Amino acid sequence: MTAQLLDQQYVVHLYAPATGPEAPAAYRGLCEIWRGCRLAFQMTEAVEGFDVPQVPPSAAEGVPEEFEGVLALQERPFADSQAVLRKHHDVFNLSVALAPPETRLPKEGEWTWWRDFDRTWNAISARYAPHMLGQARLFLAGVPEADPADASLLGWLATLVPTDATDATDATDAADSTSSTASNTEPPDLLGATLDRGVQLWEPFARPLYTPDRRLLLAVGPGSDARASRWIWSSGGTEIPPLARYLLHAAKLRYEMRVWRRDGQARELNEALDTLSSELIRTGATDSAKAELLRLRSGQALMLLGDLKLLRQTAEIADDNMRRALSEAEQLRAVNPFLRDAADAQEFLELLDDQIAYLDTRTARSASLLPIMPAASAHSVASAAPVDSAGPAAPVNPEAAYQVTDKDTVFVIHGRDERARVATFDLLRAFGLHPVEWDEAVGLLQQPMPFLGRVLREAIPRAKAVVVIMTPDDIVRLHPELAGPSEPGFETGHSMQARPNVLIELGMALAYHPRATLILQVGDHRPIADLGGFNYVRVAEGTAFRERIGKRLSYADCRVSMPPDGAWQTAGDFGPAEGRRPDRP
């Protein structure tokens, strides 16, 4: 059978978010992988014929938000291996193509290039996998004839494809993983697709929709190299090829599936709402504590319901984009792996529909109970909170307001980073807004020692907007005794996180003022699953992030002043954009 193999090549399409809290860390990972390709695969030259730099911008903030196209190109001398970094809409795409030099073609029976390339790729990329949306590894085999019905050919080629021996639900974090040398023991899927004449595609060891790493096998017949390249690499230009574009949207869909799987809030809230509603019906809605808890849970459920609907919309868009990527070859959607992807996507959308329907029913039932609850229960939990030894808190005048000003007020939540707090206040004032100091918020209650939660409950709704400054103040990690076998790097290693009070107060802001809360992120933070769907504004060099803050606040109906030559463009000294890291102050 070895005589049927003429060549082995290896192509990787890696996808990373270009927006959101993970984007800066993901982009830094891409830059490190780019340097790794230069060292490990000797990609030391620019690609002739293209006016594209050999080195990408050093940080994600250096890539304009509206930019779309190629950021960098590099290749090994004699053009047998190349790498290209693109930005496609809201995704960074790093594609790497590797081929052995003709002078080093193996002797018969020694076809190890796939395994060697895969091992090296793991070594330079695995540690950054937790920040990525996903990747697809393509194993290209040059064969005398690519016959989709040749089960013996596929079966033999499948034994040469390196497998990932780690848990399928998460990418490995070990750069020295032994996955490259693992052998395939499960029977391969013999169904494949004809991409073009002489080009056959299989996904012999398919995994569920939510897994981040895909391994595809291509058999390329004689004279079909150009047709294969048009699908998987290039037709002569720098635009993203059809299969890479399809796999990009599939990676986004798989990422959304992983986010959904990690978050079990919907089931918990459904059960809590059912239990509380039943108890209140049984007791005649006289239990004020349970009534207050039902109010809080209902608020949480409404927020989650919105998140689920947004998630479904995102998944539906990804599924539609997968279909559009195959618009020139609609017949491919009727065969694997594309048929299986479409079925998995449909199943995911149906699961989301079911979850949305269940949660919608529970919140409607809870809402029907709220009007019959006793008025005294409306703030029973908050009113019972400790204040000071002088006795219970006095009622707050509902007409109480902040100090008299003709400027719109912005309530600011912050941690220990005084520099970031002062910079934010300076920027808000440059916008013509009035940032609320803590003492001013306390003044609403007119008590010497007010309860913190009550201050926030009264202060947040009275502001026009809320700005939450997320600074990396705490170094955190998961306790080793609680770690699973394949935890991502941010769980097992030290990572940065905002102060607990900031996270708690952020939750209160999202509960009391969800449509006017803006999250400002400084530096890198450990991912927080419950905040994964929120769009942050990240501190960066230059004017662009300041402009984004101003626009977001204007969406909250704040009267923001942003003249073209105004002081707002440089207001606020936030310091280094990367913030603090675990390995340095």
UniProtKB/TrEMBL annotation:
UniProt entry tagged with the keyword Cell membrane: no
Domain CASPASE and TPR Repeat-Associated N-terminal, chain residue ranges per copy: 9-236
Stretches the record annotates as Disordered: 169-190, 566-585
Domain CASPASE and TPR Repeat-Associated C-terminal intervals: 241-365
InterPro entries tied to this protein: CAP12/PCTIR_TIR_dom, CATRA-C, CATRA-N
GO molecular function terms listed in the Swiss-Prot or TrEMBL record: NADP+ nucleosidase activity
Biased amino acid composition, Low complexity: 169-183
Residue ranges of the TM segments: none
Keywords, comma-separated and alphabetical: Coiled coil
Protein name: Uncharacterized protein
